[in-house]
Design brief:
The structure holds 2 protein chains of 2 kinds. By secondary structure, chain A is an alpha/beta fold. Chain A has a 7-stranded mixed beta sheet, with helices on both faces. Chain A has a 5-stranded mixed beta sheet with strand order 9-11-10-13-14, sandwiched between helices. Chain A starts with 14 loop residues before the first strand and ends with a strand. Chain A contains 22 helices and 22 strands. Chain B is an alpha/beta fold. Chain B contains 8 helices and 6 strands, in the order βαβββαβααβαααα. In chain B, strands 2-3-1-4-5-6 form a 6-stranded mixed beta sheet, sandwiched between helices. In chain B, α1 (about 15-30) packs across α7, α5 (about 135-140) crosses α8 and α6 crosses α8 (about 180-195). Chain B is globular, with a radius of gyration of 16 Å. The relative contact order of chain B is 0.17. The chains are: A alpha/beta, B alpha/beta. β8 (about 180-185) of chain A pairs antiparallel with β2 of chain B, so a sheet runs across the interface. Bound molecules: iron/sulfur cluster (2 copies). One iron/sulfur cluster binds next to α22 of chain A.
Chain lengths: ~625, ~200
């Protein structure tokens, strides 16, 4: 999608090739959802990013909230004024918002409210693979699970409708392969959003002190019963194929459904297929009847045996003798990692005792040959990334002897050699708080590493804790002026909103001072000497100290220069080079490579940040403007 | 598992996702069903990137089974090797000769393997290889960033993909900023002419 404005086309029946996330954005416009909140996170980011570009024109209000809990709270509040809202986040983001969500289920909503959770099987860009369908179970909330882009759009609209009907927020759960797969989407009609809401005081429902919570729990359970009826007749829960013999039945949902369909065809199986699109609450009768009609049931789902557990419970009442295969007991399908057609083919072949349709062993054997000695290519900091300079400074100032609890963002990649700065992270904001525990019990110099966006998201209470309890830690805030990892979204420190409107710039250094930190400095990480001296001083400080390393993300710098048609810097290694390899050994910049045994710079990758020039002991690297 | 399967592979920042989107959009323009899988985030920071483009009525899954690629579009030689599990002797491999050294190699003071070593490994899977001087042609077109479109041009020249050249050009028009359209069309043509000279084994 080059231009999100195409999403605005009032052209019912038009077919467009959309990313699952863009399809949800289109769904937002078709549903007349008027408030969209988010904290960016892969694989959810493009939902709100698409809206951000067109929000004003569409009459939608959108915001990058400072964290997911705030995002859900804003969406919940507007929905409680009768305005349709949606809040999008990645799976671990819902953990941050969980406190609000669990009680929002009691409070309910007036206007439709959709909470999108984008799960990440295989951890393509996450710290875990949690299966957020369990949040639906835990909170008693309806959950829809699209399997492709078309459904992603349609279900966004349905989710709002169900939400309004039940006066309950509805979860829309996607996975990476749904969010980040393009497929054809047929447009429906646009609905004009309306930002005009009305707040009606309703203390019994909204003031959840214990006396009110107890009856609201009962109300929630009644609503959950009604949700069951909706699920029973939902067009998203349907039998898409009936077997001739009635022996084998397959039940599946979301991305897994696609693999299941193709695997069944690849093995040429005669199977009935029940596809579930509303996966909480489950359509008990529909499933029960399906179970009764078959001898063997295979449940194909990604990650946890969420469906299988519940289906087994249903079987007890409906068809106690039916055999159910999945991943409880014997593991026919993997319970970790991403599902694939391959994994489903192998599992189904085992269950049905069929031969594999393709000689996977032979492919694996040949492939293993190829992989032997093949260097890996993990993600790394970009050429010219300011974080590399910061890590170099941190290493220089501490000689690698401090402890460096890290956080979530590009800079999490700093743990890799040769910089090797970063000793682990737990979740957003954990660097600040973990640093305190570590410094307390080890007495070592401790430098917490955190990005600018993450600072606003989750570091402030931790920082106040450090001040209050006088923990001797240093917090290095790596301020590259964007939420870079997820696509350069703005945040409170950038001075612009999600709607593109200039706004008050919240300065990290002022926040730190406001929290009571006595030692606060701002440095440019590319001024290596100066920055190193400041960091050393910070480490000497008796209480908590904060050093803000400020320099924009390299990708933004290059993009801006290209846009303006401005010159681009590149650096070159001159004849003075003694091949001491200091640049290569110290920095790990991908533009610094070995050619014919000599250090050299790949011109296409280098952006001329000059860091290697300042590291070279022989001043053999010279930078100049080209283009 | 019918349908036409393309795997695009390379390094983050090479324009792989845009190339995949161009192919997918072209297919949609012809009324075909299509799936284009992408991976975002971490994978784009100079890491390995793989995208699957699948065209065909029964295509549902975002990715496909090992050995089932009709075309492997390799943006980088080492990454082409890494995606060989998708290849069989029927697969056509179109590979750019543009090498991007993984930092792991540099750190171990090792140099990038020769193209010959790489093609030898590929030959254990398929002998249908077209090696395109994509970086050179992209520069010739006027912008090093058009390597992805050079490769698409080469792909179109094989006449294997069930999509017409015109649809690809139309998709280009839709997805590339007008300012850069000229260089991109030139890149497409250069890639096209380059690959036309190749004789495929199948
Ligand atoms: S100047 Fe040096 S460190 Fe900076 S991007 Fe270029 S090669 Fe890398
Ligand atoms: S995206 Fe920006 S912040 Fe992230 S690694 Fe690249 S240059 Fe650094």
């Amino acid at each position: 999608m080059p231009d999100s404005r195409l999403l605005l086309q009032d052209a019912p029946n038009k077919r467009a090739l959309l990313l699952g996330n863009e399809a949800i954005a289109r769904g937002i416009l078709e549903a007349g959802i008027s408030v969209v909140t988010t904290y960016p996170g892969t694989p959810a980011s493009e939902i709100a990013d698409s809206i951000s570009e067109i929000a004003a024109e569409a009459g939608v209000y959108m915001e990058y909230s400072i964290n997911e809990m705030v995002a859900v709270e804003v969406a919940a509040a507007t929905a409680n004024c009768g305005v349709r809202s949606l809040s999008a986040m990645k799976h671990v983001g819902l953990n941050v918002a969980a406190d609000a969500l669990m009680t929002l289920a009691y409070m309910g909503v007036k206007g439709g409210c959709v909470i999108v959770t984008a799960d990440d099987p295989e951890c393509y860009s996450s710290q875990n693979e949690q299966d957020n369908r369990f949040y639906a179970l835990l909170a008693n909330l309806p959950c829809l699970e699209p399997s492709n882009a078309q459904e992603a759009k349609d279900m966004t609209v349905s989710a709002v409708e169900i939400s309004e009907k039940l006066e309950l927020p509805v979860l829309l759960r996607t996975t990476t392969r749904v969010s980040h797969t393009r497929g054809p989407v047929t447009y429906g009609k646009l609905t004009k959003p309306s930002l005009k809401g009305e707040f009606v005081r309703d203390i019994k429902r909204m003031n959840l002190v214990p006396a009110n919570s107890r009856p609201m729990h009962t109300v929630l359970l009644t609503k959950a019963e009604k949700a069951k009826e909706i699920s029973e007749t939902s067009p998203y829960n349907t039998i898409v194929r009936r077997s001739k013999s009635g022996k084998l039945g397959v039940i599946s949902a979301s991305a897994a459904f696609n693999y299941a369909m193709e695997a069944i065809d690849a093995l040429d199986l005669d199977a009935s297929i029940l596809k579930l699109g509303m996966t909480h609450p489950l359509p008990e009768k529909l499933i029960g009847t399906f179970l009764r009609k078959h001898k063997k049931i295979v449940v194909v789902e990604e990650l946890e045996p969420y469906l299988e557990m519940q289906i087994k419970a249903i079987a007890k009442d409906y068809a106690p003798n039916v055999k159910i295969y999945g991943k409880m007991g014997t593991l026919y399908f993997p319970r970790d990692g991403e599902l694939s057609t391959r994994a489903v083919v192998i599992g189904l072949a085992k269950i049905t005792r069929r031969k594999l349709p393709i000689d996977l062993k032979e492919i694996d054997r040949k492939y293993a040959e190829v992989l032997k000695d093949l260097p890996r290519r993990p993600p790394i900091l970009c050429a010219g990334c300011p974080h590399r300079a910061t890590f170099y400074v941190i290493r220089k100032a501490t000689d690698g002897k401090a402890v460096y609890p890290n956080d979530i963002g590009c800079y999490a990649l700093g743990f890799a050699p040769p910089l090797s700065i970063g000793d682990g992270f737990l979740c957003m904001g954990s660097s600040v708080s973990m640093a305190q525990g570590i410094s307390k019990v080890t007495g070592r110099d401790t430098i917490g590493i955190i990005g600018d966006s993450t600072f606003f998201h989750a570091a402030i209470p931790g920082l106040i804790n450090a001040v209050y309890n006088n923990h001797k830690i240093t917090l290095a805030v790596l301020d590259n002026q964007a939420t870079a990892m997820t696509g350069h979204q703005p945040h409170p420190g950038t001075g612009v909103t999600g709607m593109g409107v200039p706004t008050e710039k919240v300065l990290i250094e002022k926040v730190a001072e406001g929290c009571g930190v006595k030692f606060v400095r701002v440095v440019d990480p590319f001024k290596v000497k100066e920055a190193t001296a400041v960091l050393k001083e910070a480490l000497q400080h008796s209480g908590p100290s904060v050093v803000v390393f400020r320099s924009p993300c390299a990708l933004m710098v290059v993009r801006d220069r290209r846009r303006k048609g401005a010159k681009i810097m590149v650096c070159k290694i001159t004849e003075e080079c003694t091949n001491c390899m200091a640049c290569i050994k110290l920095l790990g910049c991908p533009a610094l490579v070995l050619v014919d045994g000599k250090a050299s710079i790949n011109e296409t990758l280098c952006i001329g940040c000059g860091l290697c020039a300042s590291v070279c002991p022989y001043q053999a690297i010279k930078c100049e403007e080209i283009g | 598992m019918k349908g036409f399967n393309i795997v695009l592979t390379g390094v983050g920042g090479q324009g792989i996702l845009l190339a995949a989107e161009i192919l997918g959009t072209a297919a949609l323009k012809e009324g075909l069903n299509v799936r284009v899988s992408e991976i975002h985030g971490m994978a784009q920071r100079g890491g390995a990137v793989v995208s699957n483009v699948r065209i065909g009525e029964n295509v549902l899954a975002p990715t496909f089974l090992d050995g089932k690629a009709d075309i492997l579009l390799g943006f980088e030689p080492l990454e082409t090797l890494r995606s060989l599990n998708f290849a069989s002797e029927k697969t056509i491999i179109i590979m750019s000769d543009e090498r991007i050294t993984p930092t792991e190699l540099t750190a171990k003071k090792m140099e990038y393997p020769s193209l010959k070593e790489i093609t030898n490994k590929i030959c254990s899977f398929t002998k249908n290889i077209i090696i395109v001087e994509a970086a050179k042609l992209a520069k010739e077109a006027g912008n090093i960033l058009t390597e992805n479109v050079v490769l698409i041009g080469a792909l179109a020249a094989t006449k294997k993909i069930p999509v017409k050249d015109e649809s690809i050009l139309e998709a280009l028009k839709e997805l590339v900023p007008t300012k850069h359209l000229g260089t991109n069309i030139k890149a497409f043509k250069l890639g096209y002419e380059y690959a036309q000279k190749y004789k495929l084994k199948h």
